[in-house]
Amino acid sequence: MKNFAFVFARGGSKGLPGKNIKPLAGKPLLQYSIDSAIASPSIDKVFVSTDDHNIAKVAIESGAILIERPAELATDTSPEWLSWRHAIVWAEAKYGKFDGFVSLPATSPLRGIEDVEAAIEKRKKVDADICISVTPASRSPFFNMVKSTQDGLVELVNKPESDVTRRQDAPDVFDITTVVYATTPQFVLNNYGLFSGKVTSIEVPKVRAVDIDDIYDFRMAEAILQDND
Predict the structure, then answer these.
(1) In sequence order, what DSSP letters do the residues of 188-204 get, joined into one string?
(2) pLDDT > 70? residue 204
(3) Residue 104 gets which letter from DSSP?
(4) To the nearest whole percent, how much of the chain has pLDDT over 70?
(5) How confident is the model at residue 162 (pLDDT cuts 50, 70, 90)?
(6) Rounded Cα–Cα distance for residues 124 and 200 (Å)
(7) pLDDT band at 123 (very low <50, low <70, confident <90, very high)
(8) Which are the contacts of 185, defined by CB distance < 8 A and separation ≥ 6?
(9) Which domains does the chain have, with CATH numbers?
C-alpha cells in the first residue's frame, strides 16, 4: 500500500487571520501536520496544497512537496473536496498512482501519529470507503440539544425511542473532528462528500481533537502543549 498525505492550507482565514502559519509553541501551525505525516510509518509522501506564498515557504522548509492550488479552489466558498481532487490528479501526474489518500488538516496540531496510523488501518480492516475521526460530543441531540418549532416552542433535535431522563441513558454521539481523513483516490474522484460511501471512524480523545478556528481554540492548543512539556 502506498499512502500519500496531504495538508490543505489556503491563505485566506477569516476567523484567525494567518492561522495556518501562526507560531504555536515555537513553530508554525502548519508544521505540526507535516511533522505528523513525515513521522507516520505508513505515509510515503507528504504534500501541501496552498495558494499562499508564505504558506508555501513554510511547507517546503518543513519537508513537504508543494502543490500550487488554483485561486478558484482557494476562496471562502470553494468546497475542499474539489481541492482534494486537484491534489490527487497533480500527485498522480508527478509521482504515479497511489493507494491511500490521507488528509491531515493544519487546524488539528495535537493529533498523534497513532491517530494517523489507526485511521489508515481501520478503513482497510472494515473495508470502508473513508475513515473519519470523531471525539465524544459535549452535548447530545437526544438529551440537551433543542430546535425551535413554528409555534415558538422548542423540542429535542432527536427524540429517543424511550424517555431519557439522564444523559448517561442517551445514545452515544460524537463530534466529527479534523484530526484525520483516510480514504482512496478513487473514492474522492468518483464521489462527492464524506458520506457518499461507506464511512467508518476512529475515536480521538478531546485532548488531541482541538480544531483551531479562532483565537480561543488557538489559546487552548497552546495551554495543552504547555501542560505536556
Answers:
(1) HHH--STTSS-EEEEE-
(2) yes
(3) -
(4) 96
(5) low
(6) 10
(7) very high
(8) 88, 92, 97, 98, 99, 101
(9) 3-137+173-228 (3.90.550.10)
Report the C-alpha gap between 74 and 83 in whole angstroms: 8
Query: Which residues lie below 8 Å from residue 130, measured CB to CB, with a gap of 6+?
Result: 123, 181, 182, 183, 187, 194, 197, 198, 199, 200
CA distance 101 to 186: 9
Do residues 141 and 171 touch, judged by C-beta distance below 8 A? no
User: Cα–Cα distances in Å, from 62 out to 120, 130, 179?
Assistant: 23, 27, 19
**pLDDT at residue 32 tops 90:** yes
The whole-number average pLDDT for the span 140-169 is 81
**SS3 label, residue 173:** coil
The predicted pLDDT at position 167 comes to 67
CB 17 within 8 A of CB 29: no
- Residues forming beta bridges with residue 23, ordered by sequence position: 28
Q: Give 3's contacts (C-beta < 8 A, 6+ positions apart).
A: 42, 43, 44, 98, 99, 100, 101, 102, 120
**What is the pLDDT averaged over residues 122-128?**
97
Using the structure block, give the residue that is written with the C-alpha cell 508555501: 56
Give pTM, 2 decimals. 0.91
